[in-house]
Amino acid sequence: MKRITLKTGLLFALLVAFGTVAVNAQSKGERREPPTYAKLLEEMDADEDGQLSKEEVKGPLKDNFSEIDTNEDGFISKEEFDEAPKPKGRPRN
Questions:
Q1: What is the pTM of this model?
Q2: Residue spans with biased composition (Basic and acidic residues) (predicted)?
Q3: Residues paired with residue 76 on neighbouring β-strands, in sequence order
Q4: DSSP per residue over the chain, as a string?
Q5: Range of the domain at 80
Q6: Within 10 A of 61 (CB to CB), how many other CB atoms are there?
Q7: Cβ-contact 52, 40 below 8 angstroms
Q8: 89 in a domain, yes or no?
Q9: Is residue 62 helix, strand or coil?
Q10: Quick one: how far is CA 29 from the chain centroid?
């Protein structure tokens, strides 16, 4: 009888421990910081001219390009990027 109780207790403790690790990993994944302008240049500046054109960007930057490119020169500068409204995160459950 003691063996069954001990095994059941150990199994329960392991399940709780693994469940806690999984929950922590999931919650950390939801809190990513938005990319910096330097990171976007690194990822999207295909011609490596130090500027982001409409042809190079994707996602919300492409969708809102005309609103972000306030001086209408066809590129998003660091200043324009910094002043652009930031996308809202996912709603929390």
A1: 0.59
A2: 51-65, 75-86
A3: 52
A4: -HHHHHHHHHHHHHHHHHHHHHHHHHHHHT-PPPPPHHHHHHHH-TT-SS-EETTT--THHHHTHHHH-TT-SSEE-HHHHHHSPPPPPPPP-
A5: 34-84
A6: 20
A7: yes
A8: no
A9: helix
A10: 8
| Tokens read off for 78 | 């660091």
Q: What is the pLDDT at residue 49? A: 93
Give the model confidence (pLDDT) of 20-34 as tens digits: 655 555 555 566 788
Residue that the structure tokens 């492409």 belong to:
62
Q: Which residues contact 39 (CB under 8 A, 6 or more apart)?
A: none
What the block records as the tokens of 85 is 């409204």
Alpha-carbon distance of 73 to 49, in angstroms, equals: 15
- Amino acid in position 8: T
Residues across the chain? 93
Structural domain includes residue 92: no
User: Tokens in use for 38?
Assistant: 């330097």
Helix (H) or strand (E) holding 40: helix 37-44
